[in-house]
Design brief:
The protein has helices at about 1-20, 25-60, 65-75, and strands at about 100, 110, 115-120, 125-130. The protein has three helices and four strands. By secondary structure, it is α+β, with helices and mostly antiparallel strands. Pfam families: DUF1236 (PF06823).
């Protein structure tokens, strides 16, 4: 029991300092997952939780403000209707046509269900929904 408390405390301290000095959501996702895993499952839980948190944190990295501004300023394109819910971290169908963001090739956008959506064009994962 003392080992679990010690590991959780150490990971929590590491997460706090990392979050304060880094703006990388993958790092904070890994640290948060590790702390949660340590509390629930001990050292093995910490390792698994850290790996899951790293993947989740990297998938939801928000686009820079200049990308958001660019997409907001573009004329409204015809909206595509998609039956599945459109949410950050979830993919949209690969049949949806994306428009690249010239300032940053890591992002593209489209209009889905009357909402502008910024997408990672590599895997069609939604990174931001604009209202």
């Amino acid at each position: 029991m003392k080992t679990r408390i010690l590991i959780a405390t150490a990971l929590l301290a590491g997460m706090t300092s990392t979050a304060a000095f880094a703006q990388d959501s993958a790092v904070t996702g890994a640290a948060g997952g590790a702390v949660t895993g340590a509390i629930v499952g001990g050292p093995v839980g910490a390792a698994v939780g850290g790996a899951v948190g790293l993947v989740a944190g990297a998938a939801i990295d928000p686009p820079p403000e200049r990308v958001v501004t660019y997409v907001q300023e573009q004329p409204v394109a015809q909206s595509v209707v998609v039956e599945q819910p459109v949410a950050v971290g979830k993919p949209i169908p690969k049949t949806v046509v994306l428009t690249p963001v010239p300032e940053d090739e890591r992002y593209a956008y489209t209009v889905v269900n009357e909402r502008r959506v910024i997408v990672n064009p590599q895997n069609y994962t939604v990174v931001r929904v604009l209202d």
